Amino acid sequence: MSLLKAEDITVSQGGTPILHPVSLHLEPGEPLVILGETGSGKSLLAQAIMGTLPRDLTARGRVALGDHLLDAARPGGFRPLWGRQIAVLPQEPWLSLDPLMRAERQVTEAHHLVRGLGAAEAQAQAASDLNHLGLTGAGQRYPHELSGGMAQRVAIAAARAGGARIVIADEPTKGLDAARRDEVADLLLAELARGGGLLVITHDLALARRIGGQMIVLREGRVVEAGATASVMSAPTQAYTRDLIAADPENWAPRKPAAAGLPILTATGLAAERGGTRLFSDLSFDLTEGRILGITGPSGCGKSTLGDVVLGLTGASAGRVEKAAGLTATAFQKLYQDPVAAFPRHQTLGRTLADVARRHGQPETRIDTLMPRLGLAPALLTRRPGAVSGGELQRLALLRLLLVRPKVIFADEPTSRLDPITQKQVIDLLCETATAEGCAIMLVSHDPALVARTADHVLSLGPAAANADVTAPRVVGALQ
Amino acid sequence: MNTLMTRAIQALMVAVLIGAATFAMMRALPGDAAYRIAAGRYGYDNVDTAAADAVRDELGLGGPALPAFLGWLGDLLRLDFGTSLVTGQPVIEEIGHQLGASMALAGVAVLLSLILGPPLGILAGLRPGGVLDRVLLVVSTGLKAVPQFLMALILILILSVQFRLLPAAGHGEARHFILPALALALGLAAVNARIARDAMARIGAMPFYSFAQWMGLSPRQTLWRHGLRNVSVPLLTYLGLQFVTLVEGVVVVEAVFGWPGIGHALVHAIFSRDVPMVQGTALCLGLSFVLINTLIDLVTQRIDPRRAA
Amino acid sequence: MTDVVMIPRPAGHATRCTGGVLVAAVLIFSLIGPLAVPGDPFAQSLMKALSGAEPGAPLGYDHLGRSIFHRLAHALRLSPAIAIAAVLTAGLGGLVLGTWAAARGGWTDRILTTLADALLALPGLLLVLIVLAIVPGTALGFWAGLSLVLWVEFFRLSRAATHEVLASPAVQATRLLGFGPTYVFRTHIWPEIAPMMLTAAAFGTATAIMVIAALGFVHVGMRAPTPELGLMMVELLPYWREAPMALLSPVIATFALLLGLTLLAGSRET
Prior knowledge:
The complex is a heterotrimer.
Chain A: E1 4-13, E2 16-26, E3 32-35, H1 42-50, E4 57-65, E5 68-71, E6 86-89, H2 93-96, H3 103-114, H4 119-132, H5 148-160, E7 166-170, H6 178-193, E8 197-202, H7 205-211, E9 214-219, E10 222-228, H8 229-234, H9 239-246, E11 263-274, E12 277-288, E13 292-296, H10 303-311, E14 318-323, E15 332-335, H11 349-359, H12 365-373, H13 390-402, E16 408-412, H14 420-437, E17 440-444, H15 448-454, E18 457-460, H16 464-467, E19 475-478
Parallel strand pairs in A: 3-8, 3-9, 6-7, 7-8, 13-17, 13-18, 15-16, 16-17
Antiparallel strand pairs in A: 1-2, 1-4, 4-5, 9-10, 11-12, 11-14, 18-19
Helix pairs in contact in A: 3-4, 3-5, 13-14
Chain B: H1 2-27, H2 33-42, H3 49-59, H4 65-77, H5 91-126, H6 131-144, H7 148-162, H8 174-204, H9 207-214, H10 219-257, H11 262-271, H12 275-303
Chain C: H1 13-36, H2 68-104, H3 106-120, H4 124-134, H5 138-166, H6 169-176, H7 181-217, H8 229-236, H9 244-265
Helix pairs in contact in C: 1-2, 1-9, 2-3, 2-5, 2-7, 2-9, 3-5, 4-5, 5-7, 7-8, 7-9, 8-9
């Protein structure tokens, strides 16, 4: 018997359908992955099944949960099942724990109030849960004293404490690096192994592959394809699914290595620290025209700080950066992770770009020539940064840099907030830029596959603490 | 520790500012300040040039401005406020008498505002845009636009003059508290309620608040265990800042109702240019602000450990 | 992503309009009223004390037989004029010092912040009272005292906003692209600060008017026979039973003006 069966779930906003009928069922021991890009309706589907849709959205359809039959149009009926039948894992675990309550108490309270254990028993159970998840001794900490991974495990313990057999995880790997992503996948699978059901909503193909089981692919509120995850991923039948899978960095064709151009910058023996912690030391590399230097490493290892040093925004605590003669200060530019935050938010994009062109003595027609080259519609220029999609805005950010004719572009996770297909477009454009404009690009990414298939050289930084002991040069050499 | 240090510096700056302001006030007094002070101390009949000179030397008022100012500040920092120019009593004793009456009035007003404001604000914040929220918005906006003296006037007209329910002036009995305390409390409650409402609406929209319910807690359990604790931090912080509004209200309301407190005394002291009294009361009020906010800092840091960092 | 362009409408647009209309109505009354019905706010005629409305005095007469209409119009020019002068001084001073402190950092920032924090601990009413006792001339004293009290809020707002904006990637990007401080101020800092300044200015004006009226009401502000809102109320209070409208006129006008300014300010970010 299915743990959960949802039939003809739809979601509409003010009469306009935004999710077309979807049916699904969840079997014990077999995970279900709902894959889709931003705006595909994947989170709405999950929220409709849990009865947690925002007030202005209405759902229709039937949900059978064990022997409970529920009407998706009446979300009130779902509330008694939260924590007891369905456990919901939050998107951002740090924000999902009460910042003013110690970790263990948050788990204890679920055992006590939801599952109904006595106070002492609940506390003992919470402590043992945390031990199981490798959090021994962390229970007395407040959420801000936990790492993201620890917070995630506390949230899992709290969500499961009520005894729910079905786990629904909405984008559980949002903003995590590769190592942490696999860790979360393993945790979820471990929960599944205890005989429950697992529903994972994600845009992350690597996570989907690791979770396995069954898969539903959504696009613009409609089911595109459904089937066993392994077969969908290896032999997609629909064009959209093929594009989506082809856009996964794992499946990219490696970029042809660029011929070495003129040297632009040589860094020797760089070291940096933050708040007394050594981030990296004895780092040496060259930047040459037309080449891409990939930089990988876990969060907090000093990738952005390295960028600041190269861009001249901060000084290194040791080492030298030698720049080729005749380069102006504006030859060094940066592409930001969140393009919305990188534009003045109160003026139109056209105005911002025109200001940059004027500042650098470029004719405004150059903007018009660059727009189609980057696949951008002229109408975008009349908008403000907040009213443009992430992919378009990142391309506009690239355009803004090109107006300055940069020699070095430090691209700091430029695609980590973009959907896979958009990510591929932006990275392709970045590669073209390196060749066409003859500039060196430092490409930071937490995705080793992306870097491996794009960069001419790779610089991989270890975790900040480990760096303290490592003194050997860290250039990992050309890839081919 | 850092908090205490910052607050100590603030207290010192407050003392210096008040010292500077009252020193300027003293220098700007019409006539010879020393003569007036001597007169205040010994009575007008007993003042002669010698007594005035003695006072001038003592206060360092005679010489150039800078040493005089430093002498003035020195007295202030030693908490030597001198004697009132009007009554001849030591300032510190006068303040001691009046402080109790003011604190009683302020205490009742704050208590009343806390009973009225935050609970309504939290209820409204649980359903932003709901009926209660909209009604509360209208009422609190209206109340905020009524200054305390006007509120006092309106209350006197309605409850005292028109319906003769309560005495408009007087002191000593419980019923004397009602009008002045209400005049203070309504304005405070209006603002408290807005702060609580905004904090509750913000916290209610946070992921952890939803997550607590997804975990299986009922709305009531979520409110009691997670909502109130989180709302209390901005609310307490705000209450500390509101102390200034409270003091301003106390000054005006005491003057209106003839309440024998520190605010009433301050208005009198200003009126009669009794500089030592002004200095004493101002310092007392300024330092109380710092003290109360220090206590609130310590309490909020206990509730929210992130603040201690 | 949809292609719908979202035009953000400031929340409470209607509220702000209502506030603007209220303030405008009060100001128009004070500016145009005496032109439409000429009269002298100081002329006494004890025969007419507390008598009702007539064409030359549409709101009747006070206890000394002075036209309440003209006294009110005069009062409604006086306090807003002082308040606006003080807010302009305080706003400009606070803005300059706030952005300067945030941009310079270090000791400049520390000293100014400490000073502002200390002023924050003192009731504004008290500072105004002390300044009134120092500065000759009540109107000048109010202007100086209120400026001294009000600049702190402008300082804190502009300092905090500038601080945040300067640390943002947007400003870093703009600087990397070769722009100087003037451009950064014009495109990044000012657009963030301007709406806050407007809100703070409306609140500041309301505060100033409240202070002037409150001190007038307890006899330590403007002196008789100057027509001032608080003073008018306290003068007319004893005659409530004989002439309720005489007292209600300044009460209603004050409330309308303050309510208008509060609505105009919109909700303050806390």
